[in-house]
Amino acid sequence: xxxxxxxxxxxxxxxxxxxxxxxxxxxxxxxxxxxxxxxxxxxxxxxxxxxx
Length: 52
Prior knowledge:
Blueprint: E1 2-7, E2 14-16, H1 18-23, E3 28-33, H2 38-48
Antiparallel strand pairs: 1-2, 1-3
C-alpha cells in the first residue's frame, strides 16, 4: 500500500492520491510504502526516480 502526504505553503498537510500527486507540484511530501507489491515497487522507479 502506498500512502502519500503532501503540503504546499498555504495548505495543511493532507493525504493525496498518486494521480493528484502526479498532476500537482508540492513543496513537501512523504511517501510511505507498507509491504509494497511488485507494481508499487516499480512506481518508485518510474514515478519517483528511485533505484534498487
